[in-house]
Every structure is written in C-alpha cells, then in structure tokens.
Amino acid sequence: QVLLKESGPGLVKPSQTLSLACTVSGGSILGDEHRWSWIRQPPGKGFEWIGYMTNSGNAYYRPVLESRTSISRDTSKNQVTLQLTSVTPEDTAVYYCARRLRSGTYDSWGPGTQVTVSS
Predict the structure, then answer these.
(1) What is the distance, to the nearest Å, from the Cα of residue 105 to the centroid of all Cα atoms in its chain?
(2) Of 36, 82, 86, 110, which is the most exposed, with the fewest CB atoms less than 10 Å away?
(3) Number of neighbours of residue 92 by Cβ within 10 angstroms
(4) Which of 87, 81, 53 is closest to 67 using CA atoms?
C-alpha cells in the first residue's frame, strides 16, 4: 500500500516562495506510469489541480500557475516537491499530493497540509 505525506511550513508571507514536499512510502516514484500530482483546495472552493511529475521526470502544470510553479523530485528520499513563487493570499489552501494512474484516477492521497499566506 502506497502512502503519501505532505510536509512544509504552514505560514508563508506574501511574495515569498511556498515549498512543500511529498514523501512517498510503499512504492517508488520511479515505478510504473504514475503521475505524482499536487492539488489544492482553497477555503470554500473546489479542488484545483496544480501539476504533476511523471515517473520519468517530466513535469506538467496548470497553465494559469505555470509561470510560478515548479515540481521536482528527490529520488534518494522518494519525494516529490512543489515550489510556488510570489505567493499571495489567494494561494491560501489545503495542499495535497496524490498519485494519479494512467486512467486518470487518483488512487492514493496524502492527508493534506494547510498553507496560509499572510503577513
């Protein structure tokens, strides 16, 4: 059973960079054709896909966030990381990492981590 866990600071100041890590256990981020995804849910709103990294290391981003987003990985730690630059209060959300299958189904989710952008 694969488990995902998000980690990172819960409070980020406006204009700074949000950095989160997703640690994966029970499976390798290099295995199969999975897409290791970042998704967020702002307060009172629906889920918003941010981007994903494939097992081969290619990253894809939501177009409206692409200029501020970077997804990378640390294979030695079996982690996928998210960086979002120049944050504003509108980036306040619960951030999730999730594993997406080739079929498009998300079969594993982390518990989520609250990130608040505030001075």
Answers:
(1) 16
(2) 86
(3) 19
(4) 87
Residue type (1 letter), 102: R
End-to-end Cα distance, the chain: 39
Residue of 57, 61, 60 whose CA lies nearest to 74: 57
At residue 77, the pLDDT reads: 95
Residue-level pLDDT at 55: 87
Could you tell me which of 57, 91, 61, 62 has the C-alpha nearest to residue 72? Answer: 57
Cα 119 to chain centroid, rounded: 23
Q: Which of 116, 103, 119 is CA-nearest to residue 40?
A: 116
Q: Write out pLDDT tens, residues 74-109.
A: 999 999 999 999 999 999 999 999 999 988 899 999
